[in-house]
């Protein structure tokens, strides 16, 4: 007992005063324990906390014994660059704990990670994406119909309000079930599987907390400390296994392309390898989360900001209604891509409320790495927090204002900005991550997001439910969440949120 106490005290003293990172500013508790991160992961406010830490301590903050957060576009490039001397942090291995084998996101080794990306790329070719489009549209049509109380009633009256966080969540999960496995979850049409959305969210939230304290898992304390989140994670693992078992059994029966089929059929020439059955299950588990929660958050956030900024809403609606004369013209492709204002609104919404708001940690490898001229020794976890850099006024003047025009050229749009300003904004923009491990589904996601919002605007007038403030900030939520016109998210690695409550009427 006394020896243990002595050991702990020595470590704490070392970490506070003698550790190589001791000279960097940050909250006192975080100097000697990662419970600081676990606590904020529990509160779901890590994204906001990073913003405040940088406001208080500057661009380089020590927020854990071995962890540094930075807040510049140069750091963004240097930490995540393909040639950076870094690998994904051990944090990511927590996801592997449940699937037993690595998936792309949890693979630290560069060569192995590159192999997995080459395999996944074969499942996401432009031709494959085209093949998935009918599945995306089928779900989008159902979703649009469900915005009305009675789809046959085309009278111009406001329908009862829909909670967009729920409905967009159900939509993107149905899409992901279809395009990953050819197995729709039917969340839009039945409440049987809707519970799954909570399970996924809680499961990832649980992993997020445990990822910051891997010791919790080693000692199996997760079952005591994070019981409900742990149960959710196991449910999520079982569900993925069940889905993949079903999909394996369909081999040869499904003719159209889906991601799982693409992964099964993929072979890497460089290594002469394919994915094993276990790796396929793990990869499928990743795709469900990677492609659904993030896309749902982005669609919901865009709707929130459009409805809180009537001028932007009117301009976006005008663009969509002038570009298309028939609903079925609205799908991924050149015509949809001409809707620059719609695209700028989505980009700006993901800047204001990124679906992954915290740091995507990278660990300095042997020899350490130098970021923004500062050397960090091997083993240091360094990251740039998405929400913090997205609200850094050096790159985004008036960072808390929704201004889609910051992404538009002044030569083409009267209130746009210069090419240099857009370049600067892009240099700090990272909702999809950047560099070696950046998101592989960006094109798919934009097609989905623009198609869904485009169709809603083509079909309906929309308004916030009178009297409802769900999704908004407010004084009662504390200083950090007091902005009424900011969509409130809870950081669970991805994001959890509620609202806005929206009413629709046929145009
Ligand atoms: C708005 C929607 C989306 C957002 C905001 C988003 C965001 C992200 C982020 C932040 C990462 C982590 C990057 C890193 O660690 O540096 C990621 C990784 C990934 N995303 Fe997405 N994502 C979206 C949609 C999708 C979709 C639709 C798919 C696939 C169908 C997808 C597939 C992936 C994959 C496979 C990875 C792992 C990449 C790797 O580790 O190398 N994502 N995404």
TrEMBL record:
TM region positions: none
Annotated signal sequence is: none
Keyword vocabulary terms for this entry: Heme, Iron, Membrane, Metal-binding, Monooxygenase, Oxidoreductase, Transmembrane, Transmembrane helix
> Which Gene Ontology terms describe the biological processes this protein takes part in?
verruculogen biosynthetic process
Pathway named in the protein's UniProt entry: Mycotoxin biosynthesis
Q: Name one GO cellular component term.
A: membrane
Cofactor (UniProt): heme
Q: Which SUPFAM superfamilies match?
A: Cytochrome P450 (SSF48264)
Record-linked InterPro entries: Cyt_P450, Cyt_P450_E_grp-I, Cyt_P450_sf, Cytochrome_P450_monoxygenase
What family is reported?
Belongs to the cytochrome P450 family.
The protein, known as:
Cytochrome P450-like protein
